[in-house]
Amino acid sequence: MSRRALASALASRVGLLELLERVALRPALIVLVYHRIARPEDCAFDRNVIEATPDQFDEQMGMLRRRHSVVGPAELRDILERPSTLRHPRVAVTFDDGYRDNYAVAFPILKSHGLQALFFVPTHFVGSLDLTWWDRIAYAVRHTKRSELRLEYPSSVTVRVDGSNRDPAVKEVLRAFKAGGHADELRFFEMLERASGEAMPREARERQFFSWDEAVEMERAGMGIGSHTHSHRILSGLSAEEQRRECAESRGALRERNLAFGDCLAYPVGGPEAFSDETKRHARDTGYRFAFSNYGGINLAGRIDPFDVKRIGMDLGETASQLRFRLAASASAGRAAW
Ligand SMILES: [Zn+2]
Q1: Domain total in the chain
Q2: How many CA atoms are closer than 13 Å to the CA of 218, on its beta-carbon side?
Q3: 338: CA distance to ligand 1 center in Å?
Q4: How remote is the CA of residue 52 from the centroid of ligand 1, in Å?
Q5: Domain span including residue 178
Q6: Is residue 338 part of a domain?
Q7: pLDDT tens-digit profile of 13-71?
Q8: How far does residue 299's CA lie from ligand 1's centre (Å)?
Q9: What CATH number has the domain bearing residue 85?
């Protein structure tokens, strides 16, 4: 049993969970971020972006509905506009990347619980067969016949490839790529093709991302569609002009389709090194009013940065009761519990 599972099992046995939930009265906005809802065994690409199976997501949403005050995109934006109205813990659900399973799987589950979420899309990928850089990298690592990959760029790293479980190797290669600041994607891809002996496809056989029509349908049903830039490049590694273009192009595409949450942005990758004060300025100047990061943390009333709205990540395998405990512990401690 993992430490997290053990802690939550103990907490529920001794009644600590109920106690925490009764005293967890700090006014805080807790924003969850998911990427994909799928069964890992069905995924030929990067499984690390799957944070729940359909059944787990259904259970988690049921728990949120019963135990928490969940806000949809409109209320979430109201809180960010007027943080003084935040009087007790509120939870919001967000998704990054716009994968097709967000529409096909998550959307009906959310509706069945009467919940709404905000979905951030990289507008270049909407409705397309294109593979993202992390899915292309994952494909090469999942399909290589080599037992180790000698990466030469952006730094020298040797990654061991386990025959049966490729997920740790995928994670390690992605980490090496991201550590390089995303400077030269093509050079990294060519190097990885040589190192793995695998050609990296540009496109998948099936559509990977939900379409504009589907996005409009989701907004009509109370969901929100926000921006995740245009092509999902890490903003801090780009020139000022490229950063502005990434922000502006996406803002324009959402505006053109009258999507109501196009003034909300989520920084690609979202770690503290993925955006800077300069990035925040570009986001503001190109018409965004709020921007979400992704490196943990909850937003306490009175301490909300509208261009660094904190979100907490999800983990595949976390049960609804473990999530319940994590949220209660975070809301009572005033910071992300783990
Ligand atoms: Zn993303």
Answers
A1: 2
A2: 36
A3: 21
A4: 16
A5: 133-196
A6: no
A7: 667 777 777 775 689 999 999 999 999 999 989 999 999 999 999 999 999 999 999 99
A8: 20
A9: 3.20.20.370
Distance of CA 19 to CAs 110, 212, 328, 334, Å? 28, 45, 9, 16
pTM over the 0.85 mark: yes
Measured between alpha carbons, how far is 178 from 49 in angstroms, rounded to an integer? 15
- What is the Cα–Cα distance from 300 to 334, expressed in whole angstroms? 7
Tens-digit pLDDT profile for residues 229-238: 999 998 998 9
Query: Would residue 201 count as lying in a domain?
Result: no
CA of 268 to the centre of ligand 1 (A): 5
Tokens of 32: 């969850």
Cβ 323 vs Cβ 60: under 8 Å: yes
Averaged over 154-172, what is the pLDDT?
92
Q: How far is residue 336's CA from residue 329's CA, in Å, rounded to a whole number?
A: 8
Number of residues that make up the chain:
338
Tell me the C-alpha distance between 147 and 243, whole Å: 38
* 233 C-alpha to ligand 1 centroid (Å): 9
Least Cα distance to 272 among 243, 304, 303, 236 occurs for 236
And the tokens for 135?
Answer: 């899915």
Task: State in Å: Cα 246 to ligand 1 middle.
Answer: 13
Distance (Å) from CA 40 to ligand 1 centroid: 18
Q: Are residues 164 and 104 in the same domain?
A: no
| Cα 134 to middle of ligand 1, angstroms | 10
C-alpha 16 to ligand 1 mean position (Å):
35
Ligand 1 center to 17 CA (angstroms): 33
CA distance 279 to 235: 7
- Report the alpha-carbon distance of residue 107 to residue 11 in Å, rounded: 32
